[in-house]
Design brief:
Length: 485
């Protein structure tokens, strides 16, 4: 039978990546390449919509970008000089084709396609209001709420309708839309989710991360500002500011895990930030040891920083098999128990008889940490000390990241000492919240006016959780699990 790999359900998952290009003769091919670079943000479905000046062309598919958008025949069907794309990670249940983005609708003004990274926190409330008004929903994504709000808006241009719709929603969003021979990018007023602007020749690009610009040879222009709307059309690039300015709260977990290490976020190299996090971690939680070993691949930059600061040698003591996907065949219980070795294997020569510092980016449920520590001990480690390059994840995220309910988060249930005993480590330490902020070039967390969204660590939610807090909205958690993306 097919089952989820044991390592895949114990990580926080960024749910979506978005990409848009305007004025390019091979818009579909460029979009497919951009989505390849953003594959880490969503692996279960992908879609591209293009416009050729008269008609829209749409391709949605389950699975990864390379499995669906690498053939010339598929790209040839997606004709046009403008296009947008989306990669999606579904949080629970089956991923179904009707939920794959970009969503497409026919309005009075013509076709409209929309791709969304983030999560709306009043989507259920708005959805119920729209259903009572007669709207028929075709998906379970919160993104479709925006489409219906635009459809029911007062008459106006596509920009006017989009602004009116977004003024009614709460939540985190980076949106890319395609309509009336234009590509539109919008970032929520707090700037929780990333969005960048780039240029390749005479063409302009909007996408989630700079690594998607690199793959197509585009130059980084700038970050889209929180609350800013960028319009790409035949007359160039236009910047609109339709929302009241607010204090920005970019998601700090982008630096810890979500973004690709070769991306630049808000002016900071993600790779360098992760190394600095490791250095701060070493300063805060030093331990006598013989070797620093990362849990691949996300723990590598932090482990490099930890080793550099502590003076303890860095070694690849765990080797990852890069040819294991999200699912694999487990015909028997015996094979299931060996499943951990399909993705990671201990490098015994680097471990046997040594005191080991294991560096990982986070602990969610703890299942991965248990398996990794067991594997390292079986390889002969005399001691295993776990060091985590994020503070304890004790709260759920409602802004576009897949997290379990807080009752299932190990840090919500146990103290750090209890967590160490649970996962089988000789010691366990997390970077402090102030140490994390220092690593991203802040003096520390400003508790009165936090510089980032860190709700998964602190429970300080900067955007109202209206669906969660509204009396009678009992199906919120179920809907939210289906709707994210």
């Amino acid at each position: 039978m097919l089952t989820t790999h044991p390592f895949d359900d114990d990580k926080l998952r960024e749910e979506c990546g978005v990409f848009g290009v305007y004025n390019h003769g091979e818009a579909a091919a460029v979009a497919a390449l951009g989505l390849h670079a953003l594959q880490h943000r969503g692996q279960e479905a992908a879609g591209i919509v293009t416009f050729d000046g008269e008609h829209y062309h749409i391709q949605h598919a389950m699975g990864q970008v390379g499995d669906n958008f690498s053939s010339q025949s598929v790209i040839a069907k997606l004709r046009g000089h403008a296009g947008i794309g989306h990669v999606r990670y579904a949080t629970s249940g089956d991923t179904v084709l009707r939920n794959v983005q970009p969503l497409f609708a026919d309005f009075e003004f013509g076709g409209f396609a929309l791709a969304h990274n983030g999560n709306l926190t009043n989507a259920l409330m708005l959805r119920r209001q729209l259903v009572r008004r007669g709207c028929l929903f075709q998906s379970t994504t919160d993104t479709e709420v925006i489409v219906h709000l635009m459809a029911t808006a007062r008459s106006g241009s596509v920009i006017d309708r989009m602004v009116e719709a977004l003024r009614q929603v709460e939540g985190a969003y980076s949106l890319i839309a395609l309509a009336k021979d234009m590509v539109i990018g919008v970032r929520d007023p707090l700037g929780v989710r990333p969005l960048v602007l780039g240029r390749v020749g005479d063409s302009h690009v909007l996408c989630s991360e700079t690594c998607a610009l690199d793959i197509i040879g585009a130059d980084f222009v700038r970050d889209v500002e929180p609350g800013e709307m960028i319009v790409l059309d035949s007359s160039g690039v236009h910047s609109l500011r339709p929302f009241l300015p607010q204090h920005r709260r970019f998601c700090i977990f982008e630096y810890i895990y979500f973004a690709r290490p070769d991306s630049v976020m808000e002016g900071n190299s993600v790779y360098e930030a992760r190394k600095r996090i490791g250095m701060e971690l070493a300063r805060e939680s030093a331990v006598d040891a013989d070797v620093v070993i990362p849990v691949p691949d996300s723990g590598v930059p932090a482990a490099i920083g930890y080793a550099a600061e502590s003076g303890i040698p860095f070694e690849l003591g765990i080797i990852r098999n890069h040819y294991v996907g999200r699912t694999f065949i487990e015909p028997t219980d015996q094979i299931r128990n060996l499943g951990v070795k399909l993705k990671h294997n201990a490098n015994r020569h680097m471990i046997e008889g040594k005191r080991v510092v294991l560096v990982d980016d986070s602990i969610v449920r703890g299942t991965t940490s248990i398996k990794i520590i067991e594997m390292v001990r079986r390889a002969g480690a005399s001691e295993v000390h776990m060091r985590i390059s994020s503070p304890p994840t004790s709260h759920a995220c409602f802004y576009g990241v897949d997290t379990p309910k807080k009752e299932k988060l190990l840090a919500h249930k146990y103290s750090i000492d209890e967590m160490a005993k649970y996962i089988g480590a000789d010691s366990l330490a997390f970077i402090s919240i102030d140490g994390l902020y220092k690593a991203v070039n802040e003096p520390g967390r400003n508790n009165a006016r936090p510089q980032y969204c860190d709700a998964c660590f602190t429970g300080d939610y900067p955007i109202p959780l209206l669906d969660r807090d509204t009396p009678g909205e009992t199906s919120e958690i179920t809907y939210r699990a289906e709707a994210r993306g």
